[in-house]
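User: Here's a structure from my thesis project, written as structure tokens. My advisor, Dr. K., wants to see whether a designed sequence matches the one we expressed. Can you design one independently, without my sequence as a hint?
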């Protein structure tokens, strides 16, 4: 298995991403990791990296910034890390590619470089959500297409259902359409049209609200890319808020009372012990985080969070390897070719 990683495009220092790849290379000695970036800079920071058997450095001097226009950037910067990575997938040099950079640029490069499934109008990014019941929820789109169109949302539902079915071995995933209420007829005109289209899809349960993402009542939640991206980023900030408030509550609640000291001792340790605190807050993360699969393109591409660090990289690579071992892209493409998935 060969995996390509863009280590230059993220918002965090590149060495954090390289460190994540290096740790993964030790965990997966049979996997070859193609590190795409400025090789001079990488070698200067990691002098012994060339001695690692399953690490291949791919030199790319151009980086597409977060504020650049995706279409203009991929045309002007043909040797950028993103375009280089997609081309490596296209030429079958690597099996999968991950970039934590400009989402629009990664989507555009993949769309034009790899092409779409037959009949599909736009690719979609999906992300997992932890929930109170067993398993995880899957929400899409989370940023590939900010524009709102009913046909995009309809096809998002189909892609999400196929993906969830394959990854979690669920015969008929429950699909919900995100709206401002669960009642039929709720939502704007586009959501109402999407509801009408999705009503013919097996497993569709109707309109849902954000709380359905975590209560386990649905498996796949469909929305437009703007809404989905906002939900993901809000959830990330709420995790930090919860941790902050929890720490303050414990600190303020501890008194000189022996009973309270005994009662709060484990909780106090949870606050003061960084590892225990990290293990606790990780309970609010889904099993697969750090990167989202770009569904619907003819190749395996993942988009990482711009602020991803070493730990996120480790988890993202775990997901990519699991994804490849299960032949998810091949299975999804095969399922998509069935006539019922055309619009």
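Assistant: Designed independently from the structure alone:
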């Amino acid at each position: 298995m060969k995996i390509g990683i863009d280590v230059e495009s993220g918002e965090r220092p590149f060495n954090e991403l390289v460190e994540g790849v290096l740790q993964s290379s030790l965990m997966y000695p049979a996997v070859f990791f193609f590190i795409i970036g400025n090789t001079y800079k990488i070698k200067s920071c990691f002098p012994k990296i060339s001695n690692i058997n399953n690490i291949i450095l791919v030199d790319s001097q151009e980086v597409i910034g977060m504020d650049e226009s995706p279409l203009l950037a991929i045309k002007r910067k043909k040797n950028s890390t993103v375009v280089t990575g997609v081309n490596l997938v296209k030429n079958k040099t690597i099996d999968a590619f991950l970039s934590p950079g400009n989402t629009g640029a990664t989507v555009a490069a993949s769309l034009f470089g790899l092409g779409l499934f037959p009949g599909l109008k736009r690719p979609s990014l999906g992300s997992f959500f932890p929930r109170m019941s067993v398993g995880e929820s899957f929400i899409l789109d989370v940023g590939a297409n900010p524009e709102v169109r009913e046909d995009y949302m309809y096809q998002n539902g189909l892609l999400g259902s196929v993906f969830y079915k394959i990854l979690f071995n669920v015969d008929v995933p429950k699909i919900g359409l995100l709206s401002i209420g669960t009642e039929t007829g709720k939502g704007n005109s586009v959501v109402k049209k999407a509801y009408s289209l999705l009503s013919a899809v097996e497993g569709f349960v109707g309109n849902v609200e954000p709380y359905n993402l975590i209560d386990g009542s649905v498996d796949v939640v469909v929305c437009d890319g703007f809404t989905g991206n906002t939900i993901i980023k809000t959830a990330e900030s709420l995790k930090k808020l919860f941790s902050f408030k929890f720490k303050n509550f414990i600190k303020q609640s501890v008194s000189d009372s022996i009973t309270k000291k005994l009662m709060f001792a484990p909780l106090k340790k949870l606050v003061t012990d960084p590892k225990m605190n990290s293990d606790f807050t990780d309970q609010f993360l889904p099993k697969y985080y750090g990167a989202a699969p770009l569904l619907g393109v003819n190749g395996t591409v993942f988009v990482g969070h711009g602020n991803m660090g070493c730990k996120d990289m480790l988890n993202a690579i775990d997901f990519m390897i699991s994804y490849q071992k299960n032949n998810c892209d091949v299975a999804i493409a095969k399922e998509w070719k069935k006539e019922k998935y055309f619009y």
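When you compare it with your expressed construct, this may help: The chain has three domains: 2-120+296-335, 129-229, 242-283.
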